[in-house]
Design a protein that fits this description.
With 106 residues, the chain is α+β, with helices and mostly antiparallel strands. The chain has three helices and six strands. The protein has a six-stranded antiparallel beta sheet.
Length: 106
Amino acid sequence: MTLPRTTEGFVGGRVKFYVGRIVYVSFSRDGTVMGFGFPKEWRAALVESEPDKFSLPSESDMRFNWVHVRLDAIDAEEMRDLVENAWAMCAPKFLVEEYAAGQGYR
């Protein structure tokens, strides 16, 4: 919730985080899997590189920039990176730049 313009919603038993109307992170009902925004052109390589950690979304969600990760397979730092990068895909670029500068990323 500390990422600029983020709102939280609860839809179909799932916690979702948005920028505007775009979902950038969602958690499974049982809290074991996180879906996150990720570039379509790189997701196959991500999943193939660590199939025990990452998986593709359902066939109906393949049209979206989306990947799943098992939460027990990542630590807090990796989760932060995945969430921040997913947020940056849908947030206005000036906000991404301000946030990155404020975090010391640039």
